[in-house]
Design brief:
homodimer; alpha+beta; DNA-binding
DNA sequence: GCAAAAGTGTTAGGTGTACACCCATGA
DNA sequence: TCATGGGTGTACACCTAACACTTTTGC
């Protein structure tokens, strides 16, 4: 052991995290100012190098925890990015993951400490290296994924209203949806549990809270589509 | 340069190629017997280590050429696999790509030289490391992808018949399709060009050849779905 | 003439989509 | 009482899916 592949070259391998949150009907992307050369000061995704004792997803969770203070976050791999010269410092092969977080649990103090900011997703400026491309690929993937699996709930608090849920899907797909059709579909799936109480923060009348019932969803034996646009 | 990330560890990074072919109404997967320890002799996907002067996709194309003699192959990334211990030799992070090849162009001599064989996809035995898992993920991805983009044609000769095309989709989705509905849909898309000649190898009557017209497809401004199951 | 695969239309049911008004409430 | 957002049902168009017989031709 130790000599099997010894004629081969090794590479730096990092993860890049596309951390998405949802607030006030908009999707946000957590960005930091890069703290070291090259391109110090330019905006960048969160990232970290993989350590020998870590699985890739461990690195992601560690990085997420470091920047957001949140644990056990929903995440999914977007893909590996390894073009020569993508990192203008040295060659780094990076594996991108997007993470969907409930912004209510987010630790703002950590945010300030890292000089991080939540950028509205549709107003993201130039990022270092190929990070803009990675973000594009992420949205593409999120759209496809959210259409077949109920992953959007990871962006919401445990209790949410149907108007909130609708505005989330509208933000993900970048278009407005018909209220009646949306509600009908969501409720017909039978995985939402209506609560007794209402959210009165957005209107005088108030909107009923709902909870996503994962058990019921799991019983549905994974239909091909969750929500079609 | 050269010192930016020097406190970080480096890793072996390889690519694994899931090479798929189609013949006699079945999908086949190209496998080799592993030539070196550990697990020498066990069946494995094609793979190769990334070299410092190669983009990831260059490594894939090089590996494909080496094992199949084919150039400019259609391929797509499946994802990165980097669990500790996945390679029982040393830690290797591998990036998997599937490739769709036209078996008619395949070089059988190379196949024999590498002790490779085409295994029917639904009859693949145990493979080294996590390669079975990678193959599963590939099929999943292929199914989703083939439903929205006309990638299946990469598995066929330039000229093919509708019965052939149908049996290809049946192989990809593992279920039989209605002949009339299939033909109607395919022809209604308007991207198939009927040829004058027929393939008489599969029946006395013969089936007309068709060609896929990429230009026409490109004009279609990329509809959301290509072929829905 | 017969076996074997190629080719061809119609219909019923279901699904997506468009659309407008009343309700509840706090100020 | 009024302004604001929450909540509700229907009709039509379109698409999907089911279904059976005729044609061609080599042997």
């Amino acid at each position: 052991m130790g000599a099997f592949y010894s004629s081969e070259k090794k590479f730096y391998v990092s993860v890049d995290c596309i951390i998405l949150g949802f607030k006030n009907s908009r999707l946000y992307l957590l960005l930091i100012k890069r703290r070291f050369q090259p391109l110090k000061g330019m905006e960048s995704l969160m990232g970290g190098f993989i350590r020998p004792d870590e699985n890739i997803e461990d690195t992601v969770q560690r990085t997420l925890y470091e920047y957001t203070g949140i644990d056990g976050v929903y995440m999914e791999q977007v893909g590996a990015y390894g073009q020569i010269g993508r990192d203008t410092g040295e060659r780094v092969i990076s594996i991108a993951y997007y993470a969907l977080i409930n912004m209510a649990l987010f630790d703002d103090a950590l945010c300030r400490r890292h000089h991080a900011r939540w950028a509205p997703l549709n107003d993201v400026g130039p990022l270092v290296f190929d990070h803009n491309r990675i973000v594009e690929d992420t949205i593409d993937r999120l759209q496809r994924r959210a259409a077949i699996r109920p992953i959007g709930f990871n962006l919401l608090p445990e209790k949410f209203t149907l108007p909130q849920l609708q505005s989330l899907y509208e933000a993900i797909y970048g278009k407005t949806l018909d209220k009646r059709n949306f509600r009908k579909r969501m409720l017909d799936m039978g995985v939402l549990e209506k609560q007794e109480d209402k959210d009165k923060s957005a209107s005088r009348r108030g909107a009923y809270f709902y909870k996503f019932n994962r058990e019921k969803y799991d019983e549905l034996l994974r239909p091909g589509t969750f929500f079609v646009m």
